[in-house]
Design a protein that fits this description.
six-stranded antiparallel β-sheet, 9 helices, 31 strands, disordered C terminus
């Protein structure tokens, strides 16, 4: 388990246009020690452009412009990092050219970026993190749009060392400082996922672009038939099963998944505005476009990133994941990169705390492998950036180093976000064992009791889900205003205080939950409230049945 409060090193890179097209500044905008705020000027090298061009010829599906343009006349040979030759790769086995190319670009990027005082700052920051027995959170703010397309995730110090995005001692993400402050984020106890499956066939597009660069017309020529619908529904069932199975064992967080198959924009907006979800998973087709790309929800309807950003922030979604081509790539106009135009960047600029998108096209097999290991890591309550590293390692293991699958996920995190999606185990639910004695201590038994029928429902395992759907522990039928997933009752032990377990109710519903207090019936909605013994509750409407929260000491006869 990694504490979300980690030492953090934020680095920014920008082009110094006044001094030349290939002149850049790399500077520290946050460091774990006072003297770490350093600045380093450097020249982009022609040799690095050549390696980048070779990478694109081997791996890139969509061509991107050479970054940046450098002529032989202004190449500075004395500062050129060495290109990795074949004899620098470990001997004893046949090494594919693709492996050499992967390492060559990764090492060249590292040597160019982490040079001079920047390397010294990284080393000292890592030392501080090691002294605290924590990983270092490293965030890269790429302010020049031409550098967005480069795979910074593959940077490595030398051959045989892990890439910067693969290790557990450095948690790598991209970020931007050009954002508003985050609002107060809610505390989540479980993964509540909205799974959206969009158009499954490649769209045939005729896009008319105005002089402003904004697409004003999209004609999609792919039809929708019953077979396509059935295929998507089966895929949705498989993905939902993968996500739910991630939380079945050990002390993992519970996971609920709702699915929308080829929704209209209105249907997607209605689902997100319930504020039930902390994660959006989108699988479908997407293309780069000026306003955050286009996501094809269905053959006749697309939504751009700017439109989606509004509803994600209103819906209080913490993490948006896109298994869609080029979600991490900015758009181009006349072979020039459009600033802040990628889907991931646009969502972050609009206030989504964390976004994961793909730098290039990704196969279904690769995407499923990534999603499965990523969801498992999230359910284990890891910070999101650590979960991304775990899932990336799984891709490398399955598809090998000479394939680019592990380099495709691009993860952006808001500079103020601590990466916490679900509360760490020592601050959240404590599982009550089947035997109510724990280390010789008798724990109280909690339940809900109907004041009409006197029937009781025991809260087992420290958690009870309440709602209208059959998957809840307490199913409420015929009660107006009760949502499918209405609320949870759980208990939390804060290890730092050593206090006795305390029960809480968390509401997820549309119409809220009514709690009787000394001031009368109070309605709570999307809030958390502590439950004292004897607290009376109404789920949904104010005229619904009354349930009483009961807490009694365990019967001594229950102990062996």
């Amino acid at each position: 388990m990694v504490n979300a409060d980690l030492p953090c090193l934020n680095l920014a890179i920008d082009r110094l246009r006044a001094t030349g097209a290939n002149h850049f500044a790399i500077h520290v905008i946050q460091a774990p020690y006072r003297s770490g705020y350093v600045l380093h000027d450097t020249l982009w090298l022609e040799s690095l452009s050549q390696v980048w061009q070779s990478w694109q010829e081997m791996f890139a599906v969509r061509a991107v412009p050479t970054v940046p343009y450098i002529s032989a006349a202004n190449h500075v040979a004395t500062s050129s990092p060495p290109v990795v030759e074949p004899n620098m790769i470990p001997v004893g086995q046949t090494v594919p050219y693709s492996v050499r190319m992967m390492q060559t670009l990764g090492i060249n990027l590292w040597q160019w970026f982490f040079s001079g005082p920047i390397q010294s700052c990284l080393s000292q920051s890592q030392g501080i993190a090691m002294g605290q027995n924590k990983p270092l959170r490293l965030r890269l703010d790429i302010r020049d749009p031409d550098l967005i397309a480069l795979p910074w995730e593959i940077m490595q110090n030398q051959a045989g060392k892990p890439a910067i995005s693969l290790g557990q001692q450095v948690l790598f993400s991209r970020t931007t400082s050009d954002v508003e402050s985050l609002p107060l984020l809610r505390t989540d106890q479980s993964l509540n996922i909205l799974l959206v499956l969009g158009q499954d066939a490649t769209p045939m597009l005729d896009v008319a672009v105005e002089s402003t660069g904004v697409a004003n017309e999209v004609e999609v020529e792919v039809g929708q038939d019953r077979d396509t619908r059935l295929k998507l529904e089966h895929e949705a069932e498989a993905l939902s099963r993968i996500l739910k199975n991630s939380s079945r064992f050990g002390n993992t967080a519970s996971c609920s998944v709702d699915t929308l198959v080829q929704p209209t924009p209105a249907e997607l907006i209605a689902a997100l505005e319930t504020q039930r979800y902390n994660v959006l998973f989108y699988a479908g087709h997407g293309i780069p476009a000026p306003d955050g790309g286009l996501l094809f929800l269905r053959p006749d309807m697309a939504m751009n990133g700017t439109e989606l950003a509004q509803v994600l922030t209103r819906g209080r979604v913490k993490l948006a994941v896109f298994n869609a081509c080029w979600g991490g790539q900015p758009d181009q106009q006349d072979y020039q990169t459009i600033p802040r135009s990628s889907l991931a960047e646009v969502l972050l600029h609009h206030g989504v705390p964390a976004v994961l998108a793909m730098r290039d096209s990704i196969t279904d097999q690769e995407a499923l492998a990534f999603i499965q290991s990523f969801a498992q890591a999230l359910a284990e309550r890891l910070p999101i950036d650590q979960a991304v590293a775990v899932a990336r390692q799984n891709l490398l293991t399955l598809f090998k180093f000479n394939q680019q699958a592990w380099t495709l996920p691009i993860f952006y995190m808001h500079p103020e976000f601590n990466g916490e999606l679900v509360k760490p185990l020592d601050e959240t639910l404590t599982q009550i064992p089947s035997n109510p004695s724990q280390f010789g201590r008798r724990l109280p038994i909690a339940s809900l009791r109907s004041q009409v029928t006197a029937r009781s429902w025991t809260i087992r395992g420290g958690l009870m889900r309440v709602g209208m759907s059959e998957e809840n522990d307490l199913v409420l039928r015929g009660e107006p205003g009760v949502s499918r997933k209405h609320a949870e009752i759980f208990y939390r032990t804060l290890t730092s205080t050593g206090e006795e377990p305390t029960y809480f109710l968390r509401d997820f519903s549309r119409y809220g939950t009514w709690v009787l207090s000394s001031q009368g019936w109070q309605r709570i909605n999307h809030q958390e409230v502590q439950l004292a013994p004897g607290t009376q509750l109404k789920f949904g409407g104010s005229q619904n049945s009354v349930l009483e929260f009961v807490l009694v000491e365990a019967d001594p006869g229950d102990f062996g």
